[in-house]
Structures are given as structure tokens and as C-alpha cells.
């Protein structure tokens, strides 16, 4: 699975801790991240992470492009709801794309725990079936 890891500045520590706690699960997948977040995860875990630009410089949009091309399977985006983000339109567009393409999106620790455990148990295998059917969700 292709998995994106994104975090606003005040949530980066939490995402790094999360990636460290679930390193063995993340190691089974292809990881993508926005700039600083990806570097911090690599430094803390030793995991291989493809890094895009930072979010405000277009990293969110680069991940969005992967979603639109059906090349992203899950996103862990630890958002900071209490701080205004200068690139909020990009964040909104990314969330919208997740909804349009039925990409599982965890925006907080609670949802992230459920998503990572579901991934580990193979509960997201439907994504592979959808991809094999050229993106069509009709799994008759």
C-alpha cells in the first residue's frame, strides 16, 4: 500500500511517535510524506520515506495528485485544528480528494489507531480490488 504521512507543525511530534510505535507495520508499505515531516520520521525510525515539498510549498498538492491518479491508499494527516494554516485551501482540497476517491484519512490519533490496526489485519484489501477494477467501486 502507498501511505502518506502529513502533520501540521504542532502535531509533528505526535506523528513521529505514532510512526515509531507502528514502525513494523509501516515498514511493510511504501511511505510518502511532506518535507519536514518525512525527514523527522526517517530520522526517528530509519524507515524509507519518499519526501515531497513541505505542505505550504505544494507537498499537499503533490500527494493530492497521487490520490487523483489512484496511487494512494491511505493518509495519516495529523491536523492542528486550533491554529490557522496559511495553506488551508490546499488542506481542504486534499481532504476533498480523499472523500472523492474513498481514501481512508486519519486526522487524529484516535482514528489513526483504528486505521493502522485495520491495515495490519488486512481490512483495507478492498483498495487493491478497486485498483484492479480500474478504480470502479462496483465489486459485484
The largest β sheet comes out as: 5 strands, parallel
Percentage beta strand: 5-15%
Strand-pairing-aware structural class: alpha/beta
CATH superfamily: Methylglyoxal synthase-like domain
Computed over alpha carbons, the radius of gyration is 14 Å
Distance between the termini: 23 Å
Number of domains: 1
How many β-strands, per DSSP? 5
Secondary structure blueprint with pairings:
Blueprint: E1 2-7, H1 12-21, H2 23-26, E2 30-33, H3 35-45, E3 49-51, H4 59-68, E4 74-78, H5 88-100, E5 105-106, H6 109-120, H7 126-132
Parallel strand pairs: 1-2, 1-4, 2-3, 4-5
Helix pairs in contact: 1-3, 4-5
Structure description:
It is a single chain. By secondary structure, the protein is an alpha/beta fold. It has one domain (2-59, 70-120): Rossmann fold. 48% of the residues lie in helices and 14% in strands. The protein has helices spanning 12-21, 23-26, 35-45, 59-68, 88-100, 109-120, 126-132, and strands at 2-7, 30-33, 49-51, 74-78, 105-106. Strands 3-2-1-4-5 form a 5-stranded parallel sheet, with helices on both faces. α3 links the parallel β2 (30-33) and β3. α1 (12-21) runs parallel beside α3 and α4 (59-68) packs parallel to α5. 31% of the residues are buried. The mean pLDDT is 89.
Amino acid at each position: 500500500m502507498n501511505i502518506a504521512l502529513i502533520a501540521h507543525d504542532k502535531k509533528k511530534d505526535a506523528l513521529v511517535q505514532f510512526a515509531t510505535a507502528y514502525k513494523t507495520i509501516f515498514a511493510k508499505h511504501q511511505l510518502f510524506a511532506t518535507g519536514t515531516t518525512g525527514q523527522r520520521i526517517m530520522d526517528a525510525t530509519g524507515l524509507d520515506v519518499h519526501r515531497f515539498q513541505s505542505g505550504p510549498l505544494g507537498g499537499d498538492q503533490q500527494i493530492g495528485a497521487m490520490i487523483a491518479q489512484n496511487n494512494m491508499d491511505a493518509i495519516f494527516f495529523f491536523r492542528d485544528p486550533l491554529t490557522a494554516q496559511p495553506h488551508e485551501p490546499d488542506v481542504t482540497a486534499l481532504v476533498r480528494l480523499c472523500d472523492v476517491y474513498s481514501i481512508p484519512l486519519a486526522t487524529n490519533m484516535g482514528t489513526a489507531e483504528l486505521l493502522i490496526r485495520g491495515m495490519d489485519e488486512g481490512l483495507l484489501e478492498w483498495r487493491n480490488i478497486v485498483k484492479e477494477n480500474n478504480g470502479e467501486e462496483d465489486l459485484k
